[in-house]
Design brief:
By secondary structure, the chain is an all-alpha fold. The protein has a domain of 218 residues: MetI-like (MetI-like fold, Orthogonal Bundle), CATH 1.10.3720.10. The protein is built from 15 helices and no strands. Helix 9 runs antiparallel to helix 10. The protein is flat, with a radius of gyration of 26 Å. The chain starts with a helix and ends with a helix.
């Protein structure tokens, strides 16, 4: 397991270098210059040149890229062009908000998606199953910004139950969490239903029923435990996408999160903030995927045995030096 984790960490380093190169190239070769957005039309050519020299924008592309890589290894993602603060400080402040929204959204998705999926699988082709499948298709089809606007219109404008924007109280988090988690809930429900349907048709489930096991024990101890691997996969993928894909919802609800910070940085070509935000989100998503892979081994003993099998095979098959000498 330790060797597997080390291998994944080394792969993450290569992935991060590729992400940095891609993002750096897109920002560098995109039309427009940062000094034109930051300094405005009234700035003189001398002011613009001084801005470029101060921020290292006068150097060639390849030099800027390797300087950025060198600084990134030290935790330095540059200085924001607009606020003149370290980009990493702004990213961490905004990421805290985005992480809370994503955590609430994935918790909502897990509770509703898994519960609905299990019931739909156990009661296949029932009215509940048909309704849940229609809601799942609707949840995956509706754009987040449209759903957010509809929720604001209903619960904030018409009913007046929940606030429409901001994060001042716990009530402010409800609508954004539901909006962000709608698509994740639908995908988790569909995956849970299909995995449970496959599990409850296996021979060991028939054996458990023949032994007189209770239905709850059969469903949650025998069937769900064997169906949980693809569910963990879809939860991990969705959580990673929630961390990086909440920009639209943060804009709709006026939430100062990481997504909104990146969008605002793109408008003025604030390269340190945009590059740092995307790279930071990529690192977090890579670690989430690593955690999901490690969870596989703890949930499913078959996968854990695969990690341990090569070493045990070598211990059994490789003869000792004494045996070789005797031979």
């Amino acid at each position: 397991m330790a060797r597997f984790i080390l291998k994944r960490l080394l792969m993450m380093i290569l992935v991060m270098m590729g992400v940095v190169l891609l993002v750096f190239s897109m920002i560098y070769f995109s039309p427009g210059k940062p000094e034109d957005y930051i300094l405005g039309d009234m700035a003189t050519p001398a002011d613009k040149q001084a801005f470029r020299v101060e921020n290292g924008l006068d150097k060639p592309f390849i030099v800027q890229y390797f300087i950025y890589l060198k600084n990134m290894t030290k935790g330095n993602l540059g200085i924001s062009y607009t606020t003149r603060r370290p980009a990493i400080d702004e990213i961490l402040e905004r990421f805290t908000v985005t992480f809370k929204i994503s955590l609430l959204s994935i918790a909502f998705s897990i509770m509703v998606g898994i519960g609905t999926g299990v019931v739909s699988a156990v009661r296949q082709y029932s009215i509940w199953d048909n309704i849940s499948r229609v809601l799942a298709i609707a949840g995956m089809s509706m754009p987040n910004f449209w759903l957010g606007l509809m929720l604001i219109l209903l619960f904030s404008v018409v009913l007046g139950w929940l606030p429409a924007s901001g994060i001042a109280t716990w009530k402010h988090w409800i609508l954004p969490a539901i909006t962000v988690g709608s698509a994740s809930t639908a995908s988790i429900m569909r995956m849970t239903r299909s995995s449970m349907l496959e599990a409850i048709r296996q021979d060991y489930i028939r054996t458990a029923k023949a032994k007189g096991q209770k239905n709850l024990v059969i469903i949650f101890v025998h069937a769900f435990r064997n169906a949980v691997i693809p569910i963990i996969t879809i939860i991990g993928i969705n959580f990673g996408f929630l961390l990086g894909g909440a920009a639209v919802v943060e804009t709709v609800f006026a939430i100062p999160g990481l997504g909104k910070l990146i969008v605002d940085g793109i408008k003025v070509k604030n390269a340190p903030v945009v590059q740092g935000g995307i790279v930071f989100a990529a690192v977090v998503m890579s670690f989430i995927n690593l955690i999901v892979d490690v969870l596989y081994a703890y949930v499913d003993p078959r996968i854990r045995s695969q990690y341990m099998r090569p070493r045990s095979k070598r211990r059994i098959s490789e003869p000792s030096k004494g045996d070789a000498a005797n031979a």
